[in-house]
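Weekly puzzle thread! Below is a chain. First person to post its structure in token form gets bragging rights.
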Amino acid sequence: MIKYGENKLSKKKNWKFKDIPSQTGKVAIVTGANRGIGFEVVKTLARKGAQVIMACRNLDNSEKAKEKILSEYPNVKIDIIHLDLANLSSIREFVTKFQEKYSRLDILCNNAGIFQAPQQKTVDGFELHFGTNHLGHFALTGLLIEMIIETINSRIITMSSWGHKFGEIHFDDLDLDKNYSKGKAYAQSKLANLLFAYELQRKLEFKRRIVLSNASHPGWTRTKLSKSIIIRIFNPFMGMKPEKGALSMIYAATASEAEGGAYYGPNGRLGIKGYPIKVKSSEKSHNLELAKRLWEVSEDLTGIKFPI
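Winning reply:
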């Protein structure tokens, strides 16, 4: 049985790069991999021996990011495959190209995210935050799940944030056409990320699959994701460097102590800074009926049904 809500330190209080086990022989996909948290996850997994696929929309920026890593660590293995999570056709094309080149998938990091953007729609007509942050990753995971299951001891990590605590799933208006706000859209998508990660773990356990589905959040990390003037002013004082902010996702992806159905974030005050530990998420994120309904709606909207 999954235990929720514990606040438990790992065996090593401050889990750092040196504590990350070897990833040699493993294949990992990281979405949103050309900057910020995703870039650091790619660099770290590659340095630890994994073959890492950068799944990104902007290929020019991805090439520059790859070259930057290779300039420091020339022997790492990094590949780039185009992926636009706001386009279901692009997601299918990505999966086809990935499966033509690779026969296993040990780690899927559902990292990419839209943060408080103006009201927009995806190619398929979904509200941009919900369509990209949740439905895009839902579809990607669903199309890859059989390969993930076939890879023993594989993991799926989905990025959430503090913002999930303010989220509601507006089933009567998922696109928020009636009352849009950037904050509401973002919070809905981040709550959806956790509901998805936990429900996926329950389904995997029910089928006795040896796969972990968990989630993470980066605390306050100094990235360029936010265009908020206030956040950018306080970033130098409050935020962690991206390499430290990435540790929670890396812990969830690699640590032997990491659990399925768990949520990992920084151990400092209010979860703003620190080293990765198991943290609490909102009561709503563990609502079984809410998760089941969201899953069914997500399958209907994407047209992708998980074979589990």
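Puzzle host: Confirmed. Bonus trivia for everyone else. The two ends are 18 Å apart (CA to CA).
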